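Anyone up for a design puzzle?
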């Protein structure tokens, strides 16, 4: 049936892309009803799924207010990686050891990575969100910011309902429609949901085994390379060419070693390629980011979130606390927004002008630093802003 559902979903994809956002809520629900029927749900199933559906203004407020990602790496990581989460991580690693053993055998995903996301997403299942998932998805599908992302998620949630794994009235989660202990969207659950505890259902809210197995399968399907490292703290020579740092440059570890790059603990992974990651510039923490690190951006697009989660995963597997260094003072969100505006006018692609030093703004900063003859470490300062 999953195959038939996906075929049906593909058949209505053009209408998903062409459907207009906004407008009358009742007209929107009429369109959704037609799409659900085209996807293979019966009239009775559609009625059951949409019964009592309403817009949720709190979802839109949350969507517009994601200021947490404006923090720098040390502040964000310091806020989310608590001693309590470290202790509970060790406790859960022991409690679900059999599940993690199976995950590492079947999918090659390290337990530290899954523990880190489990902690950051829901505090190991304790805080899964109280937004009605059906209403959140419908609200975001009706909204004009990202309807092309959320209309298919509505269809996927309806299919989960048809299978008996989603209650439109009672299923709750994050404001953006993610469900369960590792916060997965309905389509991700359809594609990668795993019955980890063997009860015949995929229930990511109640079952930690289901959630962890499903998260691991999703990472593997996204391209996770089994058994490989994702991040490692490094020590850099003062003579390093800073223009070679950043995720846009990937070299073999032997090439980095030849330039004087060393692992803080142990050695760099042999036979692999990686990028030197400087989340707060050349005077702050430094990491070697391996190919698996890039896969984590498919879970969450935020640079500071992904970097913090990857670092947290290394800590959960025994790595020492990061050396914070003495990074130059960064910019405020308002200053970063001004910086993005200036860079965009100069022709650089900074992505959205939002006051967040994200994955697109950083290489733009680095390019501008190179143009001005400054150390090109991708970390913007007041002096760079003034020079621009």
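Challenge accepted. My sequence:
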């Amino acid at each position: 049936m999953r195959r038939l559902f996906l075929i049906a979903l593909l058949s209505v994809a053009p209408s998903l892309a062409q459907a207009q956002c906004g407008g009358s809520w009742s007209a929107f629900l009429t369109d959704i009803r037609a799409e659900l029927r085209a996807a293979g749900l019966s009239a009775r199933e559609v009625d059951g799924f949409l019964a009592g559906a309403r817009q949720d203004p709190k979802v839109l407020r949350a969507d517009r207010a994601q200021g947490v990602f404006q923090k720098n790496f040390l502040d964000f990581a310091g806020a989310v990686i608590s001693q309590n989460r470290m202790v509970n991580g060790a406790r859960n690693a022991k409690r679900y050891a059999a599940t993690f053993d199976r995950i590492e055998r079947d999918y090659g995903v390290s337990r530290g990575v899954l523990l880190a996301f489990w902690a950051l997403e829901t505090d190991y299942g304790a805080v899964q969100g109280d937004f009605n998932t059906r209403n959140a998805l419908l609200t975001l599908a009706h909204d004009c910011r990202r309807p092309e992302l959320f209309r298919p998620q509505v269809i996927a949630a309806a299919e989960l309902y048809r299978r008996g794994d989603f209650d439109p009235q009672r299923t709750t989660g994050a404001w953006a429609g993610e469900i369960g202990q590792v916060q997965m969207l309905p389509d991700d659950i359809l594609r990668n949901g795993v019955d980890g505890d063997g009860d015949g259902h995929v229930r990511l809210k109640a079952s930690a085994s289901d959630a962890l197995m499903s998260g691991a399968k999703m990472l593997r399907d996204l391209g996770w390379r089994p058994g490989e490292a994702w991040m490692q703290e490094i020590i850099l020579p003062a003579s390093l060419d800073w223009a070679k740092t950043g995720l846009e440059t990937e070299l073999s570890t032997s090439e980095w070693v030849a330039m004087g790059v060393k692992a803080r603990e142990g050695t760099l992974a042999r036979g692999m390629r990686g990028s030197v990651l400087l989340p707060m510039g050349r005077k702050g923490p430094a990491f070697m980011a391996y190919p698996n690190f890039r896969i984590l951006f498919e879970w969450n697009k935020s640079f500071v979130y992904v970097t913090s989660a990857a670092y947290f995963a290394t800590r959960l597997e025994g790595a020492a606390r990061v050396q914070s260094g003495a990074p130059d003072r960064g910019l405020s969100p308002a200053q970063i927004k001004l910086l993005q505006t200036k860079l965009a006018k100069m022709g650089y692609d900074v992505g959205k002008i939002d006051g967040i030093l994200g994955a697109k703004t950083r290489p733009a900063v680095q390019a501008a630093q190179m143009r001005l003859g400054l150390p090109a470490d991708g970390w913007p300062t007041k002096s760079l802003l003034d020079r621009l």
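A detail worth pointing out: Confidence is low (pLDDT under 50) at residues 1-18.
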